[in-house]
């Protein structure tokens, strides 16, 4: 009996480990060192640094009075990022805004924060950074708690404005979307938006359900963006190249169509396996870093919660 119990325990723990296979954080970081970034000018005073791999875009606004950065990717690469910023201006940043709490947009806080550069984020992002967090698929890994100097020193709840003689910059929180601390940043004069990972250019979006992510909130966030942007807007995603309203509408339609189809299948009392199998053919997105199965299962859980099915 004892042997049987022990055997069962080993199998259970092996199974749990297999289910919870976490990615090695350090090797993702080290891999990024070999990937170069590109500096792209959007308009006068506005640039973004575009890496590939597991590092987010960095927005640069070189205003009349101050330099502002949006996100700061990996701390191990901050010196290289500083070298790119020097091509635009010799100034130090006055503020850094974090679009969310994930490492691929905020790990540079560990360097900039230690240099006393003020960091602005939604209050939930600061709360998430204060403890070890397990992120959801497609990056299942432990993001370690940040040292206090790397935490955002300024937070807000719903909306916040920053001013420069050349710009009014509006930061708006969107509830429970990619995570529970996402913000959309709008440069009102230049008509440029930054979305962080709310908007992606490679198929299905990553939704960090462990940390407050929800497809319903993501659709809501995209509808908000579509309402405040216009045909001339430049919209910079968390990763990949800048886009316009047309691409955001197509993305909103893609995720809304998937959510609506899953509502329909759930109401028809289809099993989880049947829904996953039907969605494999329904989702026509080409390359996607998030698997169709993982995305379907997340959406199904949210549908069951919101629609009470
Ligand atoms: Zn990202």
Strand segment count: 14
Regions with little confidence, pLDDT below 50 for 5+ residues = 1-18
Could you tell me the mean pLDDT?
92
Identify the strand order in the major beta sheet: 1-2-3-4-5-6-9
Bound compounds: zinc ion
From the alpha carbons, calculate the radius of gyration and give it in angstroms.
20 Å
Q: Under the CATH scheme, which class?
A: Alpha Beta
Largest sheet: 7 strands, mixed
CATH architecture classification: 4-Layer Sandwich
Shape: globular
Can you count the helices?
10
Q: What would you give as the CATH superfamily?
A: Ribonuclease Z/Hydroxyacylglutathione hydrolase-like
Number of domains: 1
The sequence of SSEs as H and E is HHEEEEHEHHEHEEEEEEEHEHHH
**Intertermini distance:** 42 Å
Q: How big a fraction of the residues is strand?
A: 15-25%
What is this structure, in a nutshell?
This protein is an alpha/beta fold and 309 residues long.
Notes on the protein architecture:
With 309 residues, this protein is α/β, with parallel strands linked by helices. It has one domain (24-250): Metallo-beta-lactamase, Chain A (4-Layer Sandwich). 37% of the residues lie in helices and 19% in strands. The strands form three sheets. It has a seven-stranded mixed beta sheet with strand order 1-2-3-4-5-6-9. A five-stranded mixed beta sheet has the order 10-11-12-13-14, with no helix packed on it. A hairpin with a 2-residue loop joins strand 10 and strand 11. Helix 8 crosses helix 10. The longest helix is centred in the C-terminal third of the chain and has 23 residues, at 245-267. It is globular. The relative contact order is 0.11. The model is unreliable at 1-18 (pLDDT under 50). The protein binds zinc ion. Zinc ion (ZN) binds next to helix 4.
């Amino acid at each position: 009996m004892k042997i049987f119990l022990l055997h069962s325990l080993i199998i259970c723990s092996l199974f749990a480990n297999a289910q919870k296979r976490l990615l090695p954080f350090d090797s993702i970081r080290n891999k990024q060192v070999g990937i170069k970034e590109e500096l792209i000018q959007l308009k006068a005073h506005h640039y973004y640094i575009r890496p590939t791999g597991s590092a987010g875009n960095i927005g640069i606004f070189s205003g009349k009075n101050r330099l502002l950065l949006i996100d700061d990717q990996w701390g191990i690469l901050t010196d290289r990022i500083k070298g790119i910023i020097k091509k635009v201006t010799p100034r130090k940043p006055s503020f850094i805004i974090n679009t969310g709490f994930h490492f691929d947009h905020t790990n540079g806080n560990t360097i900039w924060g230690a240099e006393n550069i003020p960091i602005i984020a939604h209050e939930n992002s600061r709360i998430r950074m204060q403890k070890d967090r397990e992120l959801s698929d497609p990056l299942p890994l432990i993001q370690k708690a940040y040292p206090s100097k790397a935490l955002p020193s300024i937070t807000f709840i719903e909306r916040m404005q920053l001013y420069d003689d050349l710009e009014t910059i509006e930061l708006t929180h969107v509830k429970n979307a990619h995570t529970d601390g996402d913000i959309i940043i709008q440069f009102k004069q230049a008509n440029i938006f930054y979305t962080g990972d709310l908007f992606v250019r490679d198929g299905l979006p990553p939704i960090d359900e462990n940390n407050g992510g929800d497809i319903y909130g993501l659709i809501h966030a995209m509808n908000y963006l579509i309402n405040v942007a216009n045909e001339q807007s430049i919209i910079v995603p968390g990763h990949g190249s800048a886009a316009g309203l047309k691409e955001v509408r197509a993305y909103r339609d893609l995720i809304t169509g998937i959510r609506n189809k899953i509502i329909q299948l759930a109401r028809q009392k289809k099993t989880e396996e049947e829904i996953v199998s039907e969605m494999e053919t329904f989702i026509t997105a080409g390359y996607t870093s998030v698997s169709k199965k993982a995305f379907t299962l997340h959406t199904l859980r949210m549908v069951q919660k919101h629609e009470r099915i």
